[in-house]
Amino acid sequence: MPISAPEQSLLEVQGLEAGYGKIAVLHGVELRIGKGEVVALLGPNGAGKTTLLRALSGLLPVTAGSVRFEGQDLTNASPRDAARAGMVHVIEGHRVFTQISVADNLELAGYDLPRGERAARIEEALAFFPEIAAKRRDRGGALSGGQQQMLAVAQGLVRRPKLLMLDEPSAGLSPVLVDRVLSVVRELCAKGTSVLLVEQLIEKTLAVSDRVHALAQGRIVLSAGAKEADLPHRLERAYFGTEVPTALHA
Ligand SMILES: Nc1ncnc2c1ncn2[C@@H]1O[C@H](COP(=O)(O)OP(=O)(O)O)[C@@H](O)[C@H]1O
Ligand SMILES: [Mg+2]
């Protein structure tokens, strides 16, 4: 259920600009995520979705605007500080280490945690993915592509994120595995974790989201509740610049 009271915002992004050197990609992006909310970020290829996640998680400099997380200013925080604050980014096409075990991949994700704490977090993360928990002693490379994708998400969970940012977690997965990964998103939000979900699959993504933003050419072109009528249609129009943007804090 969407939470709209501003004091319950987890993430507040205002007027965000970022890009690569002289190439500006994001133009005044506004985004808010409440606690326990799943927010979808949709948009055509090249719209700037990955760039936005990178700017939020400290992988790319922010050239204007602000990022506040739990009321704390995290604009241009380092990736380590962003992760410590609770913002965890599972990068697009994330690949796991194929030569070491599933368990060791998870150990690496929690390298800086005290040993006992790390073990507990690994169990917590594996509890979401029984299919990889059963293979914890196998090499990462012995997992199917879909299972490797799940392992990448589990690595993010070892950080016990307050906000998990997933960049196209369903890319390259079979429909059954897509449903599996997206169902974990719902489980996470039921446990109070917020999720920013970047996806290409409109209908399946809307089904697990509370709110949706569409990005096109570096601008938010539509913001809506995920269950609003006629959304797939409106999103497509927004992608091509024929939808009037709705209120940014819808
Ligand atoms: N490393 C880079 N250097 C220069 N331009 C880039 C780089 N990465 C992405 N871009 C450009 O930034 C724009 C947004 O890309 P991206 O954020 O990857 O889009 P999306 O994730 O929505 O497909 C595109 O025009 C892309 O060509
Ligand atoms: Mg991308």
What can you tell me about this protein's structure?
The chain is of the alpha/beta class. It has a domain at 6-93 and 160-239: Rossmann fold, CATH 3.40.50.300. It has helices at 49-56, 79-85, 102-109, 115-126, 130-133, 145-158, 175-190, 202-208, 231-239, and strands at residues 9-20, 23-34, 38-42, 62-69, 72-73, 87-90, 163-167, 194-199, 211-216, 219-225. Strands 6-7-8-3-9-10 form a 6-stranded mixed β-sheet, sandwiched between helices. A 4-stranded antiparallel β-sheet has the order 2-1-4-5, with helices on one face. Helix 3 (102-109) packs parallel to helix 6 (145-158). The model has no long low-confidence stretch (mean pLDDT 92). Magnesium ion (MG) is lined by residues 49-50, 92, 167.
List keywords for this structure.
single chain; 250 residues; Rossmann fold; 6-stranded mixed sheet; 4-stranded antiparallel sheet; 9 helices; binds adenosine-5'-diphosphate; binds magnesium ion
Helix-strand blueprint:
Blueprint lengths: L8 E12 L2 E12 L3 E5 L6 H8 L5 E8 L2 E2 L5 H7 L1 E4 L11 H8 L5 H12 L3 H4 L11 H14 L4 E5 L7 H16 L3 E6 L2 H7 L2 E6 L2 E7 L5 H9 L11
Helix pairs in contact: 3-6, 4-6
Bound molecules: adenosine-5'-diphosphate and magnesium ion.
